[in-house]
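Chapter summary example.
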Amino acid sequence: MIKHVGLVTPNKIIILLVSPLLLSASLLDFRELDQATKAVLEGNYTKAVEAYERVEKKSDEVIYDEANSYYKLKEYKKAKELYSSIQKESLAFNKWHNLGNTHAQLGEIDEGIKAYEEALKIKEDKDTRFNLELLKKKKKEQEKQKKDNKDKKKDDKKDDKNKKKDNKKEDEKKKSDDQKEKKSKEKKESKQSKAQKKKSKEEKLKEQELKRLMKKMQKGKTPTMMYQMGDNKQPRKDDDVKPW
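The structure predicted for these 244 residues follows.
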């Protein structure tokens, strides 16, 4: 869990020989700052930022407290903008520590690490050190995850390539099988066609032969009797029978 540095209350306002207009403005700011401080202590950060917004002249302490209130409201971009604008040296450690927290909440890991390191240059602090190590660990995890994702993407690409290669081989095999089947079918059909033609030719010849024989029979040139077949029977010699 990221550890945060809390409220810095503004210094007492000392007014010496100021104009009535400046005095009035300072008193109004004091009232708004008082309301903001009370709202922060009550945990009402929405009311606090509203009060801070009404302050005309803001010291770095006020800006720091306002930034903390935005941080509590999870408006991290606005908090980062305010922390970054602080110039006062006495607030440098708190500024860098909380900027580190803000960067971490925005997912800006590298910027967060740099901010914590800047804070630790000012002084050693266990909470800052804890947050820094936490971000460094998170960065390593992200780098590992990135590498794993890259390796996975590479493996997926390789698998896709192999899959495409296998699909290509399968398609080529299927195409080759289809061609073989087609050729076999064509060969079979060709053979059947030749056989059919041959059969038709033979039937035609038989038909022609039959017609020729019928024609001869009609002319009386072909015997109308055939050998009498049976037991111990022979054709008679005196019969003028010509065998078929």
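To summarize the output: The mean pLDDT is 80.
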